[in-house]
Amino acid sequence: MLQITRQxxxxxxxxxxLARRNDSAPVQLKLIAGTCQVSEAFLAKIFQMLAQAGxxxxxxxxxxxxxxxxxxxxxTLREIVEICEGGIMLNHCLxxxxxxxxxxxxxxxxxxxxxxxxxxxxxxxxxxxxVL
Length: 132
Hints:
Arc Repressor Mutant, subunit A; about 5% strand
């Protein structure tokens, strides 16, 4: 079964919470986790990955927490999925590294490519602002 993991789902939920607040003040992770009903420890790991990618900013100190690294209109679902999942690949034959040797002669390869393009296209055109 091909399925987006909870990690990606929780990343999107947490980012939605930050975007809903729509201010520059950092939000404590505990508050985000509570509002989203997500484990604070798991969300911390997710937000660390998002911070490394520049999607969120981490603020230290008593009034620290997280804020969006860019406007919600500039963050696509594709970025979030690729950060959390390590990429998007519907079938092994679409890999760029060590691609399938039969890709040129395979009768189904074009279907996988078309499906892949449709999925990445939908995620690319949908921003965090769109899903608020």
